[in-house]
Amino acid sequence: MQLTSTDGAVFELRPNGYEYPDLTTAGELDANWLIVHGTVRTAAGEIWTFDDPSLTTWEAQELLDWLHAAAEGRLEPSDDPGSDMVTSTLMFIEPNLAFSVAAVEGEQTMLRVHLSLEAVAGKPDWSAGPKPRIYEYSIPFRVDRAQLLTAAQQWSSDITPFPAR
Fold it and tell me: Whole domain around residue 79: which residue ranges?
């Protein structure tokens, strides 16, 4: 899946495989962790990647559903994506990634991709200064609904080889 903002920021996310490929006990959490590869390019030109078991198979499906809901305009924008009351923010067990809707303007949606912990470990200037709190670092993405639908289709294809076990 790829999101490309009108300002040049790019976020790519792909599942690379199960964290424990030999563990197949149905419904067990450890059998359903996916290692995901992320590539980030900010509008300012910073580029980094990460590889980490950041999502379960169930959460990968939740991301697909969230992308469809965002594309269809069914998510309410929020100024405070960390609030427990905000249902348009998608968070996961591992707090490396989160997604939220900042604004909707006609066919354009302003999304935020929130990155923490392992998802920002490779960020070029990360050695300077304190690490941000969970979800404090976010990248805005202005995208249109067609791009969100394309991202959802890409993500659906990406996760198909990795069903819940």
Answer: 2-159
The token pair at 102 is 């900042």
Query: 140, 112 in Cβ contact below 8 A?
Result: yes
Which residue type occupies 19?
E
Q: Which pLDDT tens digits describe the chain residue by residue (165 residues)?
A: 999 999 999 999 999 999 999 998 888 999 999 999 999 999 999 999 999 999 999 999 999 999 999 999 999 898 765 555 556 899 999 999 999 999 999 999 999 999 998 898 888 876 566 666 777 789 999 999 999 999 999 999 999 999 999
Structural domain total, the chain? 1
CA distance 58 to 138: 23
Question: Is position 164 within any domain?
Answer: no
Q: Which of 91, 21, 31, 30 is nearest to 62 (CA)?
A: 91
Hey, what are 135's tokens?
């979800």
Tokens of 162: 């990795």
β partners of residue 104: 109
Which tokens belong to 161? 């080889």
Q: Is residue 165 part of a domain?
A: no
Structure tokens at 37: 């590869």
Q: Decide: 81 and 98 in contact? Cβ < 8 Å.
A: yes
